[in-house]
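A quick aside before the break. I want you to see a complete sequence-to-structure record at least once, exactly as it would be stored in a machine-readable document. Don't worry about memorizing anything.
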Amino acid sequence: MEKRPPKMKYCKKCVYPSSSAVPLAFDENGKCSGCKASEQKRDIDWDKRLELLKKIAEKYRSKDGSNYDCLIPVSGGKDSYFQTYFVTKVLGLRPLLVTYHGNNYIDVAERNLARMRKVFNVDHIIFKPSEEILKKLNLKCFKLMGDMNWHNHCGIFTYPVQIAVKMKIPLIIWGEHGYTDLGGMYSMNDMIEMTRKYRTEHACRGYDWFDMVDEELGITKQDVLWAKYPTDEELEELDVRGIYLGMFVPWDANVHAKKMMKEYGWETSDEPFERTYRQFSNLDDMHENGAHDYMKYIKFGYGRGTDHSCKDIRAGHMTREEGIEKVKQYDHVKSKDIQRWIKYVGITEEEFDKIADTFRDPNVWWKNEKGEWVKDNLWDEDEE
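That is the input. The structure line, written in tokens, reads:
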């Protein structure tokens, strides 16, 4: 039996572990920084925040109609639907929608993506990289960092910025800041904006386009042109600004999803996901909820069941006890989506498992006397 790591710590209000992939801290009462950031929302004067947002909108509105007022990176999911609704219907801006399409959309997501252009009467650019290159990047990044979806994270946070620079649209409106929402990486009062640093260090895991060029795999510089972030000089010349709508508007995915379904025809998944109880998240990537999220469990000891439970506990939609049951039900599941992904890239399940095990965090996992991988569990937190 291997020496076990120090006992895992879990937030006393939500269900996040100390091994969180999102930077996380605990106070003296065992409450995590994500919960504390969420609590800040109750004290925010959202009317003042909206007025500030309207001033920003007026500053960037095209005075003579010669260009778009702003750009919105969209996937067609609940969040980008809400972003587009808010920007067009509440702020009255004329946006350009931009999508990085990573070849992984499920059918309902394709329908949502097509529908939003019609219901909001907007122009929309969709970029689809070479499928062969995407397959190579899936496998390369799985072996390199345990993340087959690196291309998607990079594309989402890079290609829309390229278009903003090329079309001289200085204002980019993103949705919520995920790391603040999940882990309290920043205060809700910081009013943070999108930066190259955040894109590279977090969205892109510290890697960049040049790390993907691979002569042996046949990936050239031209194959990853979409992954090259604009230079500082280009960004400064246009004075590109990327704001997060979640800093100005109360953000609740459950409320937003229901509104988009009722008023604008947005569709949720036709069937439940195996690794979470929510049916309205990550519809734009068939590998995200299954294979990619399973790798998060392998690396950090938790998955999307934990992420979604934390969000819903903080929003008051679920108790912590109910969240613990969701974690117990979903986090460990090895989804059949993995079979689809290994077929997509051409490896066996045995090869998948062997590579996956190399990314297990030794601060989370150890082997018992039977040689099985084990970890601390949330429901055992009171046991000594």
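Two observations worth writing down. The chain has a mean pLDDT of 93. The longest helix spans residues 150-166. We'll return to this after the break.
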